[in-house]
Amino acid sequence: MEIIVDIENERIDKYLGTHTEYSRELITSSLKEGKVLVNDKVVKPSYKTKLNDKVTIIDNLSKEQDINPEKMELNIVYEDEHLMVIDKPSGLVVHPGSGNYAHTLVNGLKYHTDNLSDVGGDARVGIVHRLDKDTSGLMIVCKSNKAHEILAEDFKYKRVYREYYALLVGNFPYETAHIEAPIGRSKTNFNKMEVMAGGKEARTNLKVLKRYKDYTLVSLVLETGRTHQIRVHMAYIGYPVFNDPVYGSGTSSSFGQFLHSKVLRFTHPITRKKMEFVSELPNPFQEFLDNLDKSE
User: Does 132 participate in catalysis according to the annotation?
Assistant: First the structure.
């Protein structure tokens, strides 16, 4: 499918969202995956159109589908009329996208309750922040729009405390570290992020919890929330997250990266009560540490 652009200086994702049968969300994800080209080149969704640009959709994109409820075992550690705190397992995608509209956390949430915030649209009901598919642990889900809007501001202005545990490959030589390195989307692989000049500000604080011969268990606190931030920063300093197939060795078991959202601390957006939750490491993560303890 080819389109000749007739409007100048408009974001390409917005232009195609109004000039094709596809949703803007689907167009954005397709641009990132290289399925939509402008003048035979991959561009970012923020690319500004020029008159007579040739847009090529090189794959028949799936049309937007209804997001159906699915019965799912959700580990809900807290719930009230405004929000939930979920302990997400590794391997569970948070919300639909890229033509995948089933078996996500959102499908399970829609089965659990009809009361979910819709600020982010039907594909992201309740989702105010997210974890990568193979990152486990605590995350907030919003049930009311008011709670969603307040928490979105709290995340934006760094009023939500998030602490992760990760097992790094290698013996990290310092007790603490502050990593400040801007992150942007890779120009050669739109599925990856990387440290780059001109990227978005990204800051991560690291503290060593325990050292092993070939690994280091660390606590990581985010000051910003960039896509894949911890995984990118750890690879950048030369100590990638263990079992990370994208930023590590290139191979991994089905469990995915050993990265867990351990502590979540925030002020309830409605009651203003101070909330804190702590999650145990998932079994594969803890068993691997136990085996390291035994062998060393």
Answer: yes
